[in-house]
UniProtKB/TrEMBL annotation:
The keyword Metal-binding applies. SMART domains: Ald_Xan_dh_C. Residues 79-187 form the Aldehyde oxidase/xanthine dehydrogenase a/b hammerhead domain. It comes from the Eukaryota. Belongs to the xanthine dehydrogenase family. One of its GO terms (molecular function) is oxidoreductase activity. InterPro entries: Ald_Oxase/Xan_DH_a/b, Ald_Oxase/Xan_DH_a/b_sf, Ald_Oxase/xanthine_DH-like, AldOxase/xan_DH_MoCoBD1, AldOxase/xan_DH_MoCoBD2, AldOxase/xan_DH_Mopterin-bd_sf, OxRdtase_Mopterin_BS. Its cofactor is [2Fe-2S] cluster; FAD; Mo-molybdopterin. Signal peptide: none annotated. The keyword Acyltransferase does not apply. This is Xanthine dehydrogenase.
Length: 695
């Protein structure tokens, strides 16, 4: 109703302006400040610039590291020649798998009847929980607390109840709609964190607490104590390529899977579990993904496991690629968070103590929610030093599809709370928020609330560079003038700093492997444990190998990620893909360089091809594996107090100017400036692409 009134008023202003211009109404009939309320937003012409550190060029040693090299498959992707999972040509006898999904958020299944669907010509089979033992049906990335097919009870809307295998996609989806599912009376449904708190619906072993300093004493001594809360909703991953898998039986006891996943080893492991086979009979391959953002780290199992089961049981190739609506219905989102905080600070705005409760909405199963919560608890203070801290964390169990990893993995949610807190403090002490930020910034040598020393902490430099680059104060003055002159359109400016810890929260995942094969013609085939999701990982790894071997990048090729080349890989996640896999590749290159060193000494004027050829005829192995494990991490307050939680931190500061139409809520981002300190960039073009893409 408010919007209708606003639009009516907007049209009144637009007509009045035309009548004033035509001389029918007096020029001052509508105040000048009101007239711009008639305006609409128009898409502005984009203007942008990218600034990065230039690396001295030395063509002789073929060192591409630090240079803005083009993404290895950019041209194929731009022309549509790049092959994705569902782009693999159809095979003889191939079937398509379609899912039967729950239409209730929480209920018991009383009847499941697929007879009508199976009567259709071309429908080959129906699979449900009846086709697996209870043990086989229980799966999950860490805790086996979810099911391949719902086991007598559904816990969220869109949960997989069964699957139809048929001759083609249209037929399979039509048959899936014919499967009759009857439910008992619906059971109580919990959707939000607030409802979970009300019903005490938490996963076992929560809450967990982390404490530093004397919180009660600090509150007693603080000039101001303020309590508030903030909440953050979910977010859909919306990768361009939805979840997809193709399974091909290679023998009576071998299975090959092509899968759109960030974690091929986990797909391999869980397929082995569901089929009761050893992992060495299953190969999972991923050439490239059409985006992932964390949504394909653990949720790929929803499609891959039923597809693998169908292929294994029917001895035929089986394919499935979710439609967009199915993908959004079945898969989880970024974790919604609720924060309740109490903060103590001085009259000037120096924060001395914070007591904060973090509630994350996990959905119906645990997935990776415990780890997301831990990262949020470790990032709630963002860039601000708080000497006395008590942070509590709850994983809420609700009737939503299981929420999962999403770019930042709890870090952005934690930092969201920090930015609320710093603005509350600035408002209460009546000071400029930028001054309060700077006063509370960590400095090099400070310790976090999880006992990690910040050895080099460049946030002040990023802050000052961003203020200068964005012309913050000039824009601020212009915004003040604009808002004074326009009643129904307002502009605002905001600055946000970030501190993000680089490492997997789970210790054993901080490892990577690689395999390098040099062929007799001098060409190099490289395999590593990371997955190319479009982020440019393969390009960076090729650059690392080219530097280590001293050869041009044109001689190096990465075909795909496969579990039969590099075993027991970690997921491509947590922003450590190029760190871990790049180091594993360098380790393999060092072994090869050691073997080639005597030949290079004997033929100092030789070319790479001549050295390789000589090594081949001298029967020297031209294949090597590499391995890397991140050192000195794995902090635990009792068992490992001297280790670091994160290998290092990246920092950034961004300034954005926005304009909103106060009548309709329509809005537009007018300008953004971002300064990121990411150390020495391996490839500035790709890193800037990632920063802009993330923004």
């Amino acid at each position: 109703r408010a919007l209708v009134v606003s639009l009516f008023f907007k049209s009144y202003l637009a007509i009045s302006r035309k009548l004033c211009d035509a001389g029918i109404m007096p020029p001052d009939a509508v105040p000048q400040k009101d007239l711009s309320g008639a305006d609409k937003f128009h898409t502005a012409t984009m203007r942008s610039s990218q600034l990065f550190e230039r690396v001295a060029s030395n063509q002789a040693n073929h060192d591409p590291v630090g240079k803005p090299k083009v993404h290895a498959s950019a041209l194929k992707q731009a022309t549509g020649e790049a092959i994705y999972t569902d782009g693999i040509p159809r095979m003889d006898g191939e079937l398509y798998l379609a899912f039967v999904l729950s239409t209730k958020a929480h209920a018991k299944i009383t009847k499941l009847d697929a007879s009508e669907a199976l009567a259709l010509e071309g429908v080959e089979a129906f699979f449900s929980a009846q086709d697996l033992t209870e043990h086989q049906n229980e799966v999950g990335p860490v805790f086996h607390d979810e099911y391949v097919f719902a086991n007598g009870e559904v816990h969220c809307y869109g949960q997989v109840i069964g699957a139809i295998a048929a001759a083609n996609q249209t037929l399979a989806q039509r048959a899936a709609r014919l499967v009759r599912v009857e439910y008992s009376e619906p059971q109580p449904v919990i959707v939000t964190s607030e409802q979970a708190i009300e019903h005490k619906s938490y996963f076992p072993n929560y809450p967990r607490f982390l404490t530093k300093g004397d919180v009660e004493k600090a509150f007693a001594e603080a000039d101001h104590v303020y309590e508030s809360s903030c909440r953050m909703g979910g977010q859909e991953h919306f990768y361009l390529e939805t979840h997809a898998a193709v399974a091909v039986p290679r023998d009576s006891d071998e299975l090959e899977l092509f899968c759109s996943t960030q974690h091929p080893s986990e797909i391999q492991k869980l397929v082995a579990h569901v089929l009761s086979m050893p992992s060495n009979r299953i190969v999972c391959r991923a050439k490239r993904l059409g985006g992932g953002f964390g949504g394909k780290e653990s949720r790929g199992i929803m499609v891959a496991l039923p597809v693998a089961l169908a292929a294994y049981r029917l001895h035929r190739p089986v394919r499935c690629m979710l439609d967009r609506d199915e993908d959004m219905l079945m898969t989880g989102t970024r974790h919604p968070f609720l924060f309740k905080y109490k903060v103590g600070f001085s009259k000037k705005g120096m924060i001395s103590v914070c007591d904060i409760e973090c509630y994350n909405n996990a959905g119906w199963s645990m997935d990776l929610s415990f780890s997301v919560l831990e990262r949020a608890m470790y990032h709630f203070e963002n860039c601000y030093r708080i000497p006395n801290v008590r942070v509590g964390g709850w994983v809420c169990k609700t009737n939503l599809p299981s929420n999962t990893a999403f770019r930042g993995f709890g870090g952005p949610q934690g930092m969201f709370a920090a930015e609320h807190i710093i603005r509350d403090v600035a408002r209460i002490v009546d000071r400029n928020v930028l001054d309060v930020m700077q006063m509370n910034f960590y400095k090099s040598g400070d310790y976090t609330h999880y006992n990690q020393k910040l050895e080099r902490f460049p946030i002040q430099r990023c802050f000052e560079d961003c203020l200068m680059q964005s012309q913050y104060y000039a824009k601020h003055a212009e915004i003040t003038r604009f808002n004074w002159e326009h009643r129904w359109r307002n502009r605002g400016i905001a600055l946000v700093p970030t501190k993000y810890g680089i490492a997997f929260g789970v210790m054993h995942l901080n490892q990577a492997g690689a395999l390098i094969n040099i062929y007799a013609d001098g060409s190099v085939l490289l395999s590593h444990g990371g997955v190319e999701i479009g982020q440019g990982l393969n390009t960076k790894v090729i650059q690392c190998a080219a530097r280590a071997l001293g050869i041009p990048i044109e001689l190096i090729h990465i075909s795909e990620t496969a579990t039969d080349k590099v075993p027991n890989t970690s997921p491509t996640a947590a922003n450590v893909g190029s760190d871990l896999n790049g180091m594993a590749v360098i380790n393999a290159c060092e072994k090869l360089n050691k073997r080639l060193a005597p030949i290079k000494e004997a033929l100092p004027e030789g070319t790479w091809q001549e050295w390789v050829n000589k090594a081949y005829f001298d029967r020297i192995s031209l294949s090597a594996t590499g391995f890397y494990a991140t050192p000195e991490i794995g902090y635990h307050p009792e068992t490992n107090p001297n280790a670091r939680t994160y290998n290092y931190f990246t920092n950034g500061v961004a300034v954005s100017v926005v304009e909103i139409d106060c009548l309709t809520g329509d809005h537009q981002v007018l300008s953004t400036d971002i300064v990121m300190d990411i150390g020495s960039s391996i490839n500035p073009a790709i890193d800037i692409g990632q920063i802009e893409g993330a923004f």
